[in-house]
Automatic annotation (TrEMBL):
The chain crosses the membrane at residues 103-125, 137-163, 221-243, 258-278, 290-312, 318-339. It comes from the Bacteria. The keyword Lyase does not apply. The gene is tcuB. This is Tricarballylate utilization 4Fe-4S protein TcuB. InterPro entries: Citrate_utilization_prot_B, NarG-like_sf.
Length: 365
């Protein structure tokens, strides 16, 4: 139960509360994802309760196809869509600045595309003044210049996300965090347990009332590919500053051994998620932000594709323009982190940690 007992108001939250209260009376889906056992802890849903349930929801849609009260029944339940609306509203409301979040959610593709074009031109223009020394990428843009540009572009969005998570934790009444809570949350996130629908057969995201594990697989491929790419960058940083080994790095080096498979995995994962999203029923999610969600997936895929293309073009005249496009895509991903669906990973992990702390001693994750 959240600490703040003030009822949430508004069309999305009122509708979600109505539907959740019906679900809480029925409890047919109690064995499904983490949302339903969490829902049974109270009979009335105060401020923060719906926010927590919404961010626990992974939109697997199994509950919709199992429900006997969906339209044309007079209750007209659509829990995946109702919680998706509350979830998106929580990201927008807790983001800083809120206006930027709302703009990206509805105009994400155009916004991301325009920023990539503008920043690509900026980096290309900067490469005209090539440094006297340097090799590889640093022959086009000095290492110190890259660090000066990208460090604040990475840290400032992370600080904004940290503030949003602080407000989220207060809103949902998250208590003291123990190591066991973190372990439980990370275990669920690593396995993407809640994309299995609670029965281990997969979710119903793109196949209607038929189960499929594709969405979980594509999510895992994309997520672990992203983590490999992040580890590649981190290893390059350590090699540069701690070992004095400057780029470019050979194929059999940690940055390449981690980054190349990571990039391929990101391309495969994002391509799969785009395919599934195009097949899925928009009415079972937050339809108004479909474009923003698609922009986020395309942006992740763009980072991986341009990175791989840049490596393939090593030594050719294409390195300059490809470097400008890649740096622009990476920077847009960083700058839009607090406003794009990238933030869902942070919120969902926070929801899993909070849920682990809210469970009764005899409860199971």
């Amino acid at each position: 139960m959240s600490l703040d007992q003030t009822p949430l108001t508004g069309t999305a939250t009122d509708e979600a509360r109505r539907q959740i209260e019906i679900c809480n009376a029925c409890r047919y889906c109690e064995g499904f994802c983490a949302v339903f056992p969490a829902m049974t802890r109270q009979k009335a849903f105060a401020a923060g309760d719906l926010t927590q349930l919404a961010n626990l929801c992974h939109n697997c849609r199994g509950c919709y196809y199992a429900c006997q009260y969906t339209a044309p029944h007079e209750f007209a339940l659509n829990i995946p869509a109702a919680l998706a609306e509350v979830r998106v509203e929580s990201w927008e409301r807790l983001a800083r600045p809120q206006a930027m979040a709302r703009m990206f959610q509805t105009h994400g593709v155009a916004m991301a595309g325009l920023l990539v074009v503008v920043l690509a031109w900026f980096f290309w223009a900067m490469s005209v003044w090539r440094p006297e020394g340097g090799s590889g990428f640093y022959a086009y843009l000095a290492h110190g210049t890259m660090v000066a540009i990208f460090t604040p572009a990475f840290l400032v969005p992370l600080a904004l996300i940290a503030l949003s998570l602080r407000d989220y934790w207060r809103e949902v009444g998250g208590g003291r965090v123990r190591l066991s809570h973190l372990q439980s949350a990370l275990h669920s996130a690593a396995k993407m347990k809640n994309l299995s629908g609670g029965h281990g057969e997969g979710c119903n995201f793109e196949e209607g009332d038929r189960f499929s594990d594709r969405r979980r697989v594509f999510h895992q491929v994309m997520m672990y590919g992203f983590l490999l790419c992040f580890a590649s960058t981190a290893s390059g940083t350590i090699m540069h500053y701690a070992l004095g080994w400057e780029a470019p790095y050979p194929l059999l080096s940690p940055p390449k051994l981690l980054g190349l498979p990571g990039g391929v995995m990101m391309v495969a994962g994002t391509a799969g998620l785009v395919w599934l999203k195009l097949r899925a029923d928009r009415n079972l999610g937050a339809a108004r932000v479909w474009g923003g969600e698609m922009a986020f997936i395309l942006l992740l895929g763009g980072v991986a594709v341009t990175g791989l293309a840049l490596y393939a073009a090593t030594g050719s005249a294409l390195v300059g323009p490809l470097l400008a496009i890649h740096l622009a895509t990476v920077m847009v991903l960083f700058l839009l982190m607090p406003f794009s669906k990238m933030v869902h990973g942070f919120f969902r992990l926070a929801a899993l940690v909070a849920e682990a702390g809210m469970q009764r001693p005899s409860g199971k994750s």
